[in-house]
């Protein structure tokens, strides 16, 4: 079970090992796939493991000493560091990786 920020258990659909790029840093991390409202959440496990500190008052994420700006969607007041979306369904089999092309 996935444990939410308020301590509730939430079922999840699967796990995937993904590469996450923040500023000039690339991290490999196991993520849980779940039906949630947010596009994605970097959990405390990721933030601690990779030395990332959110500086909410200045709207940036300190990633190993590098300031990575955080952006907000114009229609919502929640801070987000990045958004990942695909216009096609992508099947990722266990123990594999897939590169999905996007705009340059």
Q: Can you offer a commentary on this structure?
A:
By secondary structure, the protein is mainly beta. It has one domain. Helix content is 6%, strand content 37%. The longest helix is centred in the middle third of the chain and has 6 residues, at 44-49. The mean pLDDT is 79.
Helix share of residues? Answer: under 10%
Question: How many discrete structural domains?
Answer: 1
Q: Decide which structural class fits the backbone.
A: mainly beta
| Total DSSP E strands | 9
Return residue spans where pLDDT drops below 50 for at least 5 consecutive residues: none
Radius of gyration: 15 Å
List the helices and strands in order. EEEEHEEEEE
Outline the biggest β-sheet: 3 strands, antiparallel
What's the total helix number?
1
InterPro entries: Peptidase_aspartic_dom_sf (IPR021109)
Question: Strands, helices and their partners?
Answer:
Blueprint: E1 2-3, E2 9-10, E3 14-22, E4 25-33, H1 44-49, E5 52-55, E6 60-63, E7 66-69, E8 71-72, E9 79-80
Describe the structure concisely for a colleague.
With about 100 residues, this protein is mainly beta.
Q: Which features would summarize this protein structure in a list?
A:
104 residues; mainly beta; 3-stranded antiparallel beta sheet; two-stranded antiparallel ribbon; 1 helix; 9 strands; globular
